[in-house]
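Notes from hallway chat w/ T.B., transcribed later so I don't forget. T.B. wanted the structure written out for a chain they're using in a teaching module, and asked if we could keep both sequence and structure tokens in one place. Agreed to drop them here.
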Amino acid sequence: MKMSELSTGHLLGIRDLTRSDLDLILNTAVEFKGVINRPIRKVPTLRDVTVANLFFENSTRTRLSFELAQKRLSADVVNFSAASSSVSKGETLVDTVQNILAMKVDLVVMRHPHPGAAHFLSSKVNVPIVNAGDGTHEHPTQALLDALALKEKYGAIEGLKVAILGDIRHSRVALSNVLCLQKLGAEVMVCGPATLIPRHFSSLGVRVEHDVDEALAWCDVANVLRIQLERQGADNRIPYFPSLREYHAQYGVTLERLERTGKDITIMHPGPMNRGVEIASNVADGSSSVILDQVENGVAVRMAVIYLLASGLGG
């Protein structure tokens, strides 16, 4: 594979990437997608590289996707869980990572509940950092895999109308997607209850809508976000909306709603899904859904990111 370089030594957020960076990652991911769909799904590219996955917050899809991507590249993988580590005894983030790096780790993938944690760590250690999600801030690889799914379906993202629907306030996917789609030339709308759309989103150059039927009538693509009850208070008493039943009635993406638009809308969801809340099962599993394509693309995109960042290691 042809060696090329990103303009940055880390993947901390979409905000830090240029349009050329986005194109390079997506084009590299396309090549790796060919690798993971062949009989022998492994390449020896990073045989001498050790990657540490540091997850200070629960994750299933993202952690497994990163681990599989690393193993497809033949990297050595170290998995770290905060719950069973010295973090639970009071050790600081920097001390934890410095101890791991002392074991000759070359690259760190980190998910953390606090916004900005990946940026902070990148200023303290001398290895590439990949942000696998920092609180409600960014989730750059999710935005990249979403972009790849759209590029595969439409050929180009320029001019597409994409509506991001749901819990914008508590999502790390929303901001990354907005920034990525805008840099790739799409028009973006966010839609949900006023209580779930932070005011600063209107300053990002996106359209803000509170009527899901209007949003669906406008868009080519609907990216439906999960209602994140775990970020709204343990007992869901924070009144962002009256009830899950009412949320589904007002904002749920149903087959009936889609049929009323009279057009074919591509359906996306970053997962995990609350079926029957933000999205109906027959929509999630329907012919217009690219949700499983997003999952498959996650491995290829994360292979591309790790490969490109590891290419900058002095080795």
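Follow-up for T.B.: The mean pLDDT is 92. Might be a good example for the class.
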